[in-house]
Write a structure and sequence with these properties.
homodimer; 339 residues; alpha/beta; Rossmann fold; Arc Repressor Mutant, subunit A; 2 domains; two-stranded parallel sheet; elongated
Chain lengths: 339, 339
């Protein structure tokens, strides 16, 4: 069987170890989500008279209790006593403990000692532990939307694809924030046993087998405007906000600062890392998002006008491009809950 | 402060106990999902200089380790030693352990001993424990889609609303299957601290604050046709399946069995609990769902024709009514994952 294709033959009775790597201050849900998926796969396979395919184990540097981020203690085995076969997979959840340098070092040593055939998967900021172990070099990867730019900065040889829910690159899987671990585990089960089993598990857990749109639809737009220690730019941004309903070509912005368009663009990019055009679009989108939620009775057309989108359709296209969902879907998904 | 309205004033520094009730074979994710939400609320409130509002505790009949359904052991306090104040909430997760009669009896005694002001919330089939404690009498409630009809049968004085993601009725909250516990917890945080905090938590966990559509979009359509011990009806259903692309008025079906339309309808309803018209619609929808997934390249129009929907728009409307999502969204959400 070639490495990194289907681990398990749907008709076989082979057992594949799935190790969940635990450390102090691991995010409880990063662990529980994927675990429940593999457990459900075992249950459903047993129901049709097959062997439970996934041998689920919690492993940590030392046997005993591990404290999760929510304060719950869980029992783990020592990873030194736990051998992973070449058909195994190690899941590395995220959590505040990821930033601990001792954790980084010990996880690195453990992961680097594995045979090359063992697959490694991270959930959320667990990707940083993979990075420290050198496993993301030359790979595509994703992490929680809040930490994507940091992952890219910390591991420049990695191609971070911030909008993915999960990415597989060879034997390395990474996934987006927290609940994306469920999507990741479903994808592994689908790879191993096909669509029907994965879909049954998804329905059982009441999640989608495949989400529409990428993780950025869940995140706030990156606010180019935040925290720039430059009074001139702050003033400019305030002026843009006040004039959002008007067309705002780069020339007009340059005029505001009394600069030529060319020097203004160079200056702006050097200060913010983004172009003025993109910054205006971000401000429009950001304002539209806030208005969609804060003024539930205002029509999307009116919001598009107020934010300077030159028409509802233009706003719709921008939203779909940026979040994979339309303004009305955004309002639906993030608006106040009505019971 | 009136009972069952906002528990916590957004500006107050009051602390509210949130007790997670554990028992053997509790579903790990039923517990972890809501727990992570309340923990995130604590973290975000602390970040803005406020007191962590939720005092999260695991409680069980006896102090010590509790075995969850996935095999992980977690540490719990004894519920006898844990006092819930009148602003508290008790979360009752689901899990295979729900069917244990000793668990049912002990949870009943514990819940019935609580002051009336304490709110009680269930996740997934945890609703059955609330039912056994008599808490669902005269209330609206929901549970996992697979168990809704059983909940209705076991507790006839409850109004089961099978399509909800969660329901609040007075001080009693119930929620749909497994991950709906996250939606439930977000709704409680939104009630307590408003939309912005809940939306921030949802974005942090990479979930939607409000899902579009009810839980039935995640479930298989109830197959009226399954398991009816009546040869004549099985034959009829087979004939319907073969002729699904044609119009199938009730008169035509009655002719197939050589009955008058009136006696046929009476006979059909008595055997299946549903009308022939509804049964035909269910078969059309069920077939369309299978085709959407199994033939990813077939257009929705063609599928609508083959399933006898008389047009794509008619199929779309039926899907939206039944699942809260369109055929193409259904295909997106449940179709094979492409990487």
């Amino acid at each position: 069987m070639p490495a990194f294709s289907a681990n398990l033959d749907a008709n076989s009775d082979q057992v594949s170890p799935v190790l969940f790597l635990c450390y102090d201050d691991v995010t409880f849900l990063d662990l529980a989500g994927p675990m429940q998926v593999f457990h459900a796969a075992n249950t459903l396979r047993r129901k049709i008279g097959k062997v439970a395919p996934y041998q689920i184990k919690l492993v940590a540097r030392a046997a005993g209790q591990v404290k999760t981020d929510v304060g719950v203690h869980i029992e783990a085995n020592s990873w030194q006593d736990t051998i992973v076969s070449d058909r195994g997979i190690i899941i590395v959840p995220g959590g505040p403990g990821v930033w601990d340098s001792e954790t980084q070092a010990s996880v690195r040593d453990y992961l680097c000692a594995q045979p090359q055939e063992v697959e490694i998967a991270s959930v959320c900021i667990g990707a940083f532990l993979l990075g420290h172990a050198g496993l993301l070099r030359g790979k595509q990867a994703v992490t929680h939307w809040k930490y994507c730019s940091r992952l890219q900065a910390d591991f420049p040889e990695t191609r971070v694809n911030a909008d993915s829910i999960f990415i597989r690159d060879g034997g390395i899987w990474t996934s987006a924030g927290v609940t994306a671990g469920i999507d990741l585990a479903l994808a592994i089960v689908e790879r191993d046993f096909g669509h029907t089993l994965a879909a049954d598990i998804a329905r059982g857990l009441v999640v989608f087998l495949k989400r529409t749109g990428g993780q950025s639809q869940y995140s706030k737009i990156l606010e180019t405007q935040a925290g720039i220690p430059d009074g001139r730019l702050s003033d400019l941004h305030a002026w843009i906000s006040d004039n959002l309903h008007k067309p705002l070509p780069t020339e007009t912005l340059a005029e505001q600062l009394g600069m030529s368009t060319r020097s203004f663009v160079r200056y702006y990019v050097s200060k913010t890392g983004t172009t003025p055009r993109k910054a205006v679009e971000n401000l429009r989108v950001d304002t539209a998002k806030r208005m969609l939620l804060d003024y539930p009775l205002l029509s999307i057309k009116r919001i598009a006008d107020k934010c300077g989108f030159q028409g509802e359709e233009r706003m719709r296209r921008t939203f779909v491009r940026q979040f994979g969902s339309t303004p009305s879907e955004y309002r639906e998904n993030f608006g106040p809950t009505q019971q």
